[in-house]
Amino acid sequence: MATHKVRVGITGFGTIGERIADGVNEQADMEIVGVCDAAPAIPVRALIDSGQRYPLYAANAEGKEKLENAGADVAGMHEDLIEKVDIMVDAASPGIPAQNKSKYESAGIKAIFEGGESNEIADVLFNTHANYSEALGKNFIKNLSCNTTGICRTILTLDNAFGVKEFTSLIVRRAADPSETHKGPINAAMPAKVPSHQAEDFMIVKPEISAVTVVVTVPITHGHINSTQAVIKESANRDDILDAFSKEPRIKLFKLGDGFDSNSTIFDYNRDLLNPRGDMYEVPIWEETVYVKENVVYWVQMIPQEAIVIPENIDAIRAAMQTHESAEEAMRETNRYLSML
Amino acid sequence: MATHKVRVGITGFGTIGERIADGVNEQADMEIVGVCDAAPAIPVRALIDSGQRYPLYAANAEGKEKLENAGADVAGMHEDLIEKVDIMVDAASPGIPAQNKSKYESAGIKAIFEGGESNEIADVLFNTHANYSEALGKNFIKNLSCNTTGICRTILTLDNAFGVKEFTSLIVRRAADPSETHKGPINAAMPAKVPSHQAEDFMIVKPEISAVTVVVTVPITHGHINSTQAVIKESANRDDILDAFSKEPRIKLFKLGDGFDSNSTIFDYNRDLLNPRGDMYEVPIWEETVYVKENVVYWVQMIPQEAIVIPENIDAIRAAMQTHESAEEAMRETNRYLSML
Amino acid sequence: MATHKVRVGITGFGTIGERIADGVNEQADMEIVGVCDAAPAIPVRALIDSGQRYPLYAANAEGKEKLENAGADVAGMHEDLIEKVDIMVDAASPGIPAQNKSKYESAGIKAIFEGGESNEIADVLFNTHANYSEALGKNFIKNLSCNTTGICRTILTLDNAFGVKEFTSLIVRRAADPSETHKGPINAAMPAKVPSHQAEDFMIVKPEISAVTVVVTVPITHGHINSTQAVIKESANRDDILDAFSKEPRIKLFKLGDGFDSNSTIFDYNRDLLNPRGDMYEVPIWEETVYVKENVVYWVQMIPQEAIVIPENIDAIRAAMQTHESAEEAMRETNRYLSML
Amino acid sequence: MATHKVRVGITGFGTIGERIADGVNEQADMEIVGVCDAAPAIPVRALIDSGQRYPLYAANAEGKEKLENAGADVAGMHEDLIEKVDIMVDAASPGIPAQNKSKYESAGIKAIFEGGESNEIADVLFNTHANYSEALGKNFIKNLSCNTTGICRTILTLDNAFGVKEFTSLIVRRAADPSETHKGPINAAMPAKVPSHQAEDFMIVKPEISAVTVVVTVPITHGHINSTQAVIKESANRDDILDAFSKEPRIKLFKLGDGFDSNSTIFDYNRDLLNPRGDMYEVPIWEETVYVKENVVYWVQMIPQEAIVIPENIDAIRAAMQTHESAEEAMRETNRYLSML
Prior knowledge:
4 copies of one chain form a homotetramer.
Chain A: E1 6-11, H1 15-26, E2 30-37, H2 42-49, E3 56-58, H3 61-69, E4 74-77, H4 78-84, E5 87-90, H5 96-107, E6 110-113, E7 124-126, H6 128-135, E8 140-143, H7 146-162, E9 164-174, E10 190-191, H8 197-205, E11 210-218, E12 224-232, H9 238-247, E13 251-254, H10 263-272, E14 283-286, E15 291-293, E16 296-303, H11 310-321, H12 327-337
Parallel strand pairs in A: 1-2, 1-5, 2-3, 3-4, 5-6, 6-8, 7-8, 9-11, 13-14
Antiparallel strand pairs in A: 9-12, 10-11, 12-16, 15-16
Helix pairs in contact in A: 1-11, 6-11, 6-12, 7-8, 11-12
């Protein structure tokens, strides 16, 4: 491990960027040097209004003025932040990170990109469980989107335990985050072309497993739902499956019978746990939905879309910076500081 | 065919009952003798306020008073209606039809029940495509619920063309009809225990095909969505599948690319077709969701929950009354009068 | 009255345009010569798929091709339609009618515009109850938007009976029509700057009455809700108010106690009345919300946003064409053919 | 002030009870001795799963078993808790507190009740701004409901500054909290009889000001919206009003122009401030909705329904226990520990 903490910058302090910042900042071997944005959207305002726990940099001159008008103490420009970090997580609006990449190359720093970018932006499309070793030491790594990340966690947990031949996942997609008030639909369910992109991305990081994903978008805001059926290679009964899921720290089992009857109820539970923002990093699985018929395993899981990719983003930093040589070591460290048991 | 029209009564003039009445009334060989309810809920008020196109009977003395207070001209009591009909479709609130059954037995009339009753109420659980001949001449027939009816239509269309070995259907369930204002959830998706009852019911009417169904309830009102994957026995490509679907009059293909992007959009289209109530009897399938991977066929369909069971209810009357000896003949006649081409 | 029927064209066969067409077509003294659009959106597809009850014209060459690809029999171009009509109702997407106006001027025909256009487009901003006589014989008339139209109906009914000094109306705005799937919010209420534009428009057509309107947008699709309080000049009790409302054919009273507990329930009632599209032309008022405290009258009304402006659009044609010299005569004729008693 | 901390118990650890517990526990002069519930609903599960920061008591024997099955360390029964406290805040489900009251009387402890109980349960219906002194030393105090509490704050702030003669408030009511999945409506707005109970309650605590309230319930979960118009006695312009609002610590101004475009956006901002549960204690007012026309002030405010009554509950404890003799002193102390500036 490096003798100094990994110096991390965040570009784009939005729904994902702010959570990566807070997650990275919990890691004993990493520090947030600064965060950068172009305008005082809600997360940036909250950062400013709560005392700017991270130095705030401006994406450009116009942005600097806007941030200062919102009361910010601006520490410098994007270029200044780039000079101070080992690695940048660029979670700016889709399209912007592709424009920023050349800056990172010129400055000789590494960068992590998010699911909204095209796969070409990075040297490797990354998921910890699937292909950590491929990302070791890479300069540019792209994470999977939230649904594909959650699918990797559960599918690869089963694959590790029993072997998975193929799977189908229906994604009941939350149409918007709580404050994305411009997005619909209001009272409609919207199917997309089959297969959707998640299966394709999955098969890039794990080509051995055949996948199909289907997306139907619905008017909810507190998490996607995935209904999956996977064909396993070894024989397993329902208890075996529950046992495998329960041993993976990034999965958490909930019971309908305990009152966890919906994604919003789990969200409220996380608020009542006093988790920051009511977030959770794990993928919830409802126990009563776990069902085995011959060699096919069925289950329904939730994707807390705002926070689920945070652990894998931190793992990606570990891979790029080679702080840990194996997925297991990297995850153990990330999990520890994010309190995933 | 009988020399007189089949005399049909409707008990329970709610969302389903009123639509069965109007569908039956379109049939050249059937007539609605009367409809019966216990209180002036919205459909009954609309019937009264638009001139009572059917004679209205009261379920009991208290109901008679309520109906008259709402302006109804009450033609008699439930018992009076029973005496005048050959067959009763009992679509009253779940539980009531089971209480009414002995009246029908005593009077020597036949009866059709709906999906909300327990299967024990009837001699046969019925779906036209699946087991019409089993219902021929039976006294008590129970229809499948709306989702299972829609699943039968598409699965059995494929089974007829290519053979279906097994299937899984994820039901994205609309939580309430438009005026069911007491029902939630508002901003949540609610999974149910897997497998859900629809697969069980399906396998009763078609035991040769293995089925699993999964239900997630979401806050929408204009139709359920089913995402299905079926394993077929014979080889078929996407065009073959589309061709098979397009030939079944009770299925209708829509294109996302033509602007039919959701269940509510299809509902609005039906309103613009000036269909009564904006209803449709067919199962819509979105063409772009039809996908074939080896021997597995995927597609997403909509279930217009208010009207979809009407054709099969009419078929059930045909089976009970033996107006037609085969499913094909019965459907041809029903379809003709419901304008399903 | 003219010896021939008024020849009316419709430009923009969308949610409003299609309903104006059907409403005009019910009038004994008017006929729809043709309707025009630029693309096969859902209402146009439904028109084509149900047999093109009106001749369909194309807005431009590209549109002609699109319409023909959707199966349309295109009768000609917009210019051709213009030559055949006495008056055009231009309900195309906001901004387009302003571009079309010069065509109407050149051709010497009159035109009616909708609420989405800027007030400058017309010679007069129009509401039948407020200023029919000002619009007599005018070439270009603009209708009020749906909420302001509904507010005019109830406020001016009270003004006629008791005198209204001033009023405030809170508009709980439906955020989207059922098939406007791109519009949010999903789980949020969005206030707007106070006062909103509706009051301003009202005071243009009725300057004697002072008005303030407030808008909060919420995630519903079947009608706006207005909560109004009006200061009346003469003394009146609750029964007087209900009596005045009940005598206006364009207002309809509903009781919460009869089960009409929401806008969606009234929508479902209209579907069950078998009204085309489940539409209604009247403004519903819930009786239990009518309350009088000293000289202030309170009530809550619904605005069926898709259909409410149709009667006033037809009245506007009457004013422009001078088929009737007074608001009372015009409304009586319009109401008769729209079955508003 | 008492030489020992006020010993407070909480009965009913639900949405309100858990927040009162956490708010009380922040007060330097109060301590939570224990909390009590009858079953492991979500808030109780979260308490247990996060280490039981408060001793947990069982409402009854059956409840004890349920709590223990959920992993709780049960400290005793309700009666045991009663013996250890000076005052109980009973926020159990409506109806239960009325049954518990005799226990509190027998034990000689005081109690605070919530808005869902009937007014007869207490010696005084309480709001700090309105009638703190009436509650001094009282044994049984009932708080106002969330909307009426918020209305008191803003109306009485204006009353204090300019005098308020009368007001009307339209309450756009959130139909359910996020995890109340059984509650609807899904796509409907539901008016209630006018006037609603909030005005009546307001006039009990502040009889000098005449009030009318109107309620329309809509499908949202993150806060009610109130649109109010108040007639003031002294002359004031918009800046005066904004100034008065800005000086009240329990009100917080937000700008639509800063991106705070909805109740859900403000909720997300509170999450990003890392407030526990994403809660806020203040009443948000949108600046752009503050409007003055002659002597009438208009504004739109939000009611964060889960947390807004917490400060007044703590004030009520202060009044009952006479820790502070005036509303101003009580509020200053409560505000300080709740970080309301």
